[in-house]
């Protein structure tokens, strides 16, 4: 059956609905494609595209814990520069201190030598005074005997009718009258003869000796007083200089510690001294054993000149009064530390021990000794072999037991050992005397003397 036909109005309404539906579909599709944004569409705020994060670098290898930073390196450099400056200044200070010590040592040595010479001159003047007093006593004894004879002659002249001139002249002589009268009277008596001439000559000589001895004794006494004053002043000066020198030695040691590598540590000094003491003890034991073996064999001794004088430092020696140079009894002298075959006067030996031990702490061995006390016979022998160096026999300080000749480097005036001695020996009363430092003449850097 055919479908009924719609009216025109109805067909128009259907067409409108179809078109609206198609438009809605198309609008929806366009919205979906983003081609048209209808006014009624919801606006969505766009999300900004994320900025790509920078690539994270790979973790570096671990830094070593002891690798310094640039700041640490800079600070280390600054410290090094400060240390270098301090070390340089320490060296400057050290050189200045060494120069000051050298000057003090030279002054102390000179003062000690002046003291030594003054004391020796004083002793010589005192001996001269004693000798002149002895001459005076002898002359006065001769005069007394002569006056006895003259008195007898005066009595004979008075009783026997001698001339008035002769009698009065003899009385003048006996009463100690003027010299002119005495000389005239003696001349008259000599003319008389009768064997009196020789007696008168003796009386005249006794008068001359009396006057000369009196004058010389007075001069010697004055010289002794002068030298005593010089010795006292020199001793005071040397004591003050040695005290300054000792202080300067301590200051120098501190500066040496500040100047890198120039100071000997306390541990090194102790080790050096211990080694030196062992060496000294071994030398003493060997010498004692040699002496004991020689005694058992019935011979005179072990090492040449050795005798057991007791331990160094404990030896007190004995009085040397009345003994001449080079004739000192060996039993009155003392052995030297580290060299027991060498001997000196007791005070010199004990001072030398202290010096040698201080030296050993620095150099690791006792002071090397080549000669010490010399007998008169030994001095005569040395003088014959070395006429230009040895002192006249009977005048050497070796013969007094107060001088040594040294080796082990000290004999070289430019060595470290000799320089140490120059700076320190006076602290212990030892000097290298001025005459021994004369490079243009008698030069003996090995010769050292004790000043007391």
TrEMBL record:
GO biological process: proteolysis
Gene3D superfamilies: 3.30.1380.10
InterPro entries for this protein: DD-CPase-like, VanY-like_core_dom, Zn_M74/Hedgehog-like
SUPFAM superfamilies given in the database record: Hedgehog/DD-peptidase
Keywords, ordered alphabetically: Coiled coil
Pfam families the UniProt entry points to: VanY (PF02557)
Coiled-coil spans in chain: 73-128
Residue ranges occupied by any D-alanyl-D-alanine carboxypeptidase-like core domain in the UniProt entry: 342-452
Name of the protein in its database record: D-alanyl-D-alanine carboxypeptidase-like core domain-containing protein
